[in-house]
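Entry 14. Ran structure prediction on the chain below.
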Amino acid sequence: MKAVVIDQYGGQEELKEKQIDRPSISSDQVLVQIYATSINPIDWKVRAGHLQEMLSFDFPITLGWDAAGVIVEKGDNVTNYNVGDSVFTRPATTREGTYAEYVAVDEDLLANIPESMSFEEAASIPLAGLTAWQCLVDYANIKKGDKVLIHGGAGGVGIFAIQIAKHFGAYVATTASEKNDEFLKSLGADSIVHYKQENFSDILSDYDIVLDSIGGDVQSKSYEVLKQNGTLVSIAQPPSEEEAKSYGVTAIFVWLEPKGEELQTLANMFKEGNLKTVINKTFPFKESSIKEAHALSETHHVRGKIVINMK
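Output, C-alpha cells:
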C-alpha cells in the first residue's frame, strides 16, 4: 500500500512516499481503508524528533493519528462492527499511523460515522475532539455555569473545546487574534481576548477552568485568572505542582487516551447539531502535499483542521 513515512528525524524533507506492507490485524481489530486523515501538531513534533522520550518508535514511522474510512476486514472477536461500515477513529499511538491507505484499529477505538458527516469532517475530529473532551469533561469535570478560559480558540483543539464547553452550559472566554472574532462567536465563545493587544490575566478573573494549549508564560499567567480550587488542564507542557499549589488550584497535564465510546458521543453531538467541524484546507494524499500540510501546521496560525483526502 502507499504510505508517507519518515526514516529519520528532521524537517519536512524527511517525509517520503513509499510502498509498504498492508497491516495485518489481530482477532480484536479491524482493517480500515482510509478515505481521509488529518494533520495535527503531534505529527510534525514526532517528525522533528521532539517527542523521542515519550514515543520511542523504531523507523520507518508512518505518521498520522486520525482516520475516517470503511472497514474491509474484521477479526474473529469483533462483534459491534462489520465489513462495509463507515467508521472513524483515533487509533492507538504506534509507528504505523494514518498517512497510509490502510490502518489496523482495535474495536474499542472505533465510532460510527453519522450519515450527515463526510469522511473529511470525520477525519478532522478524533485527536483534537477527544483531547478537548477529555480535558474539559474527564479531567476538569466541567458543569453548567462554570467559567472556562480556552487558549487558542481558533486552533484544532480550541474549536471543539469551545463547543463542548457551551454544550455543558459554561461561560466561555478564549484568546485569539482580532480577525477570528466573528468565527469564534459563531462557535459559542462569550468573550474574546485579543492576545496581541491585551493581557488576559489583567482582564479575566474568578474562572473555574483554564485549558492551556500554549505553555510557558501563558500557563503561568493562567493561574492568576483561576478561582480557589479551580483547575488548569494543559496539553502544552506539564504544569509546576509548586506553582499550582501556591495559587490553591489543581493543574493537570493531559495526554490523550483514545476512546471509541467518547468519539461516538462527539459523533452524536454532530448529528444533533451541537458540534460542527472546521476544515481550514484539504490536501490530496501525496508526498508534496503532506510536506505542504506540515509547513502550514507549523505556522501555528491555522483556523480549524488540515485534512488529507485519500481518495
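DSSP finds ten helices and 16 strands in the chain. Will compare against last week's run tomorrow.
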